[in-house]
Every structure is written in structure tokens, then in C-alpha cells.
């Protein structure tokens, strides 16, 4: 189904990025494998993708009018970690905010005639600049996020910027210094289970000297390091009983084989993807992996450079769909142009063509909904015309 030799033009309706309208900015283009739309249809899912570089939240879905791929983009200040909550909401770490989006449409409603989900920001919590990375939702519905600037896991506070929940044992104090570059979070049964860090450094910015092989996975419950020797690991996720992660510095998706009796495990690569990997989600037998171009100095000088050269490949930005049974890429979505870095992605089940509304936008003020019990007639939401 991959259709890796075929590409199709992708339309991009939705709330446009104002900067994209400037004539001196290169145009962003999208391409995809021939089977991507069919794959999304068969799985009954859409994808949500964040890019802090472009300040955009993307929804990749299916346009019911054309039958093709639909890419909706929403302007968000520095979107990073994204979690799909058990109640269907989306929680996003963005800039100095933590935002909870809720779908306001009923099953029979459509926005602008094509969108079957309209995610509106209902809670916007100001945290201050914490360089928050991954985010999760606990059993009580509270967000838990990686506070990278303070080297800890945190939750929201009614009074303070954050409330510390946990910190790695090798970090000696709660201090405003990015020491180990804590970044990834895996949740299990509504609780933080594992985190990834680029190093176990306990000095300010010490992680930058350990990018090649200083990466670790830490068990939140015990504080033990369960895997080390990694290269800038990101996006730990639990799927079908296995602990998966992206070894970004080598471009590999793989899992950590943990000994049954406890102790330190080892990373088992499954597939190489041509990019700096961040953002991982699963649906059944498929893994959805985010790829970025390693343009900046912090991503250079890693084993990824040699892997790309050996494969005679250039790095690219986008999403690859990996079949875990065949251990191969079967479909893909690619972004070319000025956008070269993604951070996170989430699977959005049950919707074909979702969209989101940006906080503070005219659309956020104009989209007004009420409880279904008071609704007598079917309504169709009409938002501002998209900017392409």
C-alpha cells in the first residue's frame, strides 16, 4: 500500500500562518505516498502534528468533498508536546501555555461543510517559559508535562507556574538550568511510567557534551536507569506491552528489551528513518514517526550523519508510517520548503477531517456552542474563510 514511488499534491485549507502570506517567504509544499489516504480511511483516524519552528499545529485528514488528503494548519505559539486524552480532548504544551482543546461538534455537525471535528481551546493555562516538551494526561484528567527547563515532571498549579511531581535521582536540585535535557514521557494506566533524557548531567547545559551516547531511559516509579548509551532519545511510548522510543541521533525507531528480573535493558532498533526523529504514536500494527531535518548545530555531528550517507539519502521533514510486522515504511507524508522541524504527533481516532481554532483568534470568539439538550435544530458552524 505504500506507493513510495508516487506522490500527489496536497491541498492545504485551514487557518493559515500569516507569515506564509508574505511574498518573500518560500512556499511550503506537501507530498504523500499513494496509499496514505486509504490507510487513514481504513484505520478511521487522522493525525495531529506540531512544529515549533513554523508555529503551526497541523491536522492531516481526508477531505470528504474531494476524497484527497486535507491538511489543516492552525497558528499556535511554539507548539510542542501533544497528548490525546481519554475523554477525546487534546492537551498541548505551547510556548508559555498549556492548552486543552475540546471538539465542539456533534456527530451530525460540520464546520465549513467538511470538518467533522472542531477543536476549540477551552482551557489556556499560563505557565511561563518552561521549555515544556512531552505532555500526558493522568487518571484524574490532569496534565503532566516534562518541564525541561527545571529538569522535572510537573503539573499545573493554581498559584505558581508549575508544581513539581518528580525529578530524576541524578538531578540534585530543582533549579532553573537545563542540565540533562529531560524531554520524553511515557504514560501507563494514567501515571507517568518512563522518561527520556539526553544525558544524566547535573550541571547547566551539560547534556550538549553527551549527545552522541549519553541518552538514558528512567523508570519513574523506581528512579532506575533502565537503558543507557542512547543518542538523543525522544518520545518514549508504551504499546502492546513494549517500551518504544526514538533514538533520534541515529534515526532509529526501536524498543527497549527489559530483563524479566529487572535491571538495565538494551535498545533494539527496528527500522531506520531518514531524519532526526521526534514524535511517535501507534495504532494497531502501525507506528507513526515524525521526522525533522538536522539543520541546527545541536543535531549535527551524530551517527545520523553517517547513516544518511551510507544510505545515500537526504534527511527530510514529515511523517512515516511503519508496519511493525514487516518492519518497513508503508506510507508517508512529507513537508518541503521552509518548514524543516516537527516535534510531536498524535493519532486522532474516529474523525476523517479535524481542524482546530487558535486561541485569541477571531474564530475563537465567534465559535459559540451550547449543550445538546438545548439544541433543537441541526447547526453547521461557519468559520472565517481559510487562508491558503
Structural class: mainly beta
Number of strands: 26
Helices and strands, in order, run as: EHEEEEEEEEEEEEEEEEEEEEEHEEEEH
Low-confidence stretches: 1-9, 15-23
Mean pLDDT across every amino acid position: 90
Shape: globular
Percentage of residues in strands: 35-45%
Distance between the termini: 30 Å
Could you tell me the radius of gyration in angstroms?
20 Å
Number of helices: 3
Helical proportion, percent range: under 10%
Q: Walk across the major sheet and give the strand order.
A: 1-24-23-22-21
Which features does this protein show?
single chain, 388 residues, mainly beta, five-stranded antiparallel beta sheet, 3 helices, 5% helix
Brief sketch in words of this structure:
The chain is mainly beta and 388 residues long.
Question: In words, what does this structure look like?
Answer:
- It contains 3 helices and 26 strands.
- With 388 residues, it is mostly beta strands.
- Strand 19 and strand 20 (266-272) form a beta hairpin.
- 47% of the residues are buried.
Amino acid at each position: 500500500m505504500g506507493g513510495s514511488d508516487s506522490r500527489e499534491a496536497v491541498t492545504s485549507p485551514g487557518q493559515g500562518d500569516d507569515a506564509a502570506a508574505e511574498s518573500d517567504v518560500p512556499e511550503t509544499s506537501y507530498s504523500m505516498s499513494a496509499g496514505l489516504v486509504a490507510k487513514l480511511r481504513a484505520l478511521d483516524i487522522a493525525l495531529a502534528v506540531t512544529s515549533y519552528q513554523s508555529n503551526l499545529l497541523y491536522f492531516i485528514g481526508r477531505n470528504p468533498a474531494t476524497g484527497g488528503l486535507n491538511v489543516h494548519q492552525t497558528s499556535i505559539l511554539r507548539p510542542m508536546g501533544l497528548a490525546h486524552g481519554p475523554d477525546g480532548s487534546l492537551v498541548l504544551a505551547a510556548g508559555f501555555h498549556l492548552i486543552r482543546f475540546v471538539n465542539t461538534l456533534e456527530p451530525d455537525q460540520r464546520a465549513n461543510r467538511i470538518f467533522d471535528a472542531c477543536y476549540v481551546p477551552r482551557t489556556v493555562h499560563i505557565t511561563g517559559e518552561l521549555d515544556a516538551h512531552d505532555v500526558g494526561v493522568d487518571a484524574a484528567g490532569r496534565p503532566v508535562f516534562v518541564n525541561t527547563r527545571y529538569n522535572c515532571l510537573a503539573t499545573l498549579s493554581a498559584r505558581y507556574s508549575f508544581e513539581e511531581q518528580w525529578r530524576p535521582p541524578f538531578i540534585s536540585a530543582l533549579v532553573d538550568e537545563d542540565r540533562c535535557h529531560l524531554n520524553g514521557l511515557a504514560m501507563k494506566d494514567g501515571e507517568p511510567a518512563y522518561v527520556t533524557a539526553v544525558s544524566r548531567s547535573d550541571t547547566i547545559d551539560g547534556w550538549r557534551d553527551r549527545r552522541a551516547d549519553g541518552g538514558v531511559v528512567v523508570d519513574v516509579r523506581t528512579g532506575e536507569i533502565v537503558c543507557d548509551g542512547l543518542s538523543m532519545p525522544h518520545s518514549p511510548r508504551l504499546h502492546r506491552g513494549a517500551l518504544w522510543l526514538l533514538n533520534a541521533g541515529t534515526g532509529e525507531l526501536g524498543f527497549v528489551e527489559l530483563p524479566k528480573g529487572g535491571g538495565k535493558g538494551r535498545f533494539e532498533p527496528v527500522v531506520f528513518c531518514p531524519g532526526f526523529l521526534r514524535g511517535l504514536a501507534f495504532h494497531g500494527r502501525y507506528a507513526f514517526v515524525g521526522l525533522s531535518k538536522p539543520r541546527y548545530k545541536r543535531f549535527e555531528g551524530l551517527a545520523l550523519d553517517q547513516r544518511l550517507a551510507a544510505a545515500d539519502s537526504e534527511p527530510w521533514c514529515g511523517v512515516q508510517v511503519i508496519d511493525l510486522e514487516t518492519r518497513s515504511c508503508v506510507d508517508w507524508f512529507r513537508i518541503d520548503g521552509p518548514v524543516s522541524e516537527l516535534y510531536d504527533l498524535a493519532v486522532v481516532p474516529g474523525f476523517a477531517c479535524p481542524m482546530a481554532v487558535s486561541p485569541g483568534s477571531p474564530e475563537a470568539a465567534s465559535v459559540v456552542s451550547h449543550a445538546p439538550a438545548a439544541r433543537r435544530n441541526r447547526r453547521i458552524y461557519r468559520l472565517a474563510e481559510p487562508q491558503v
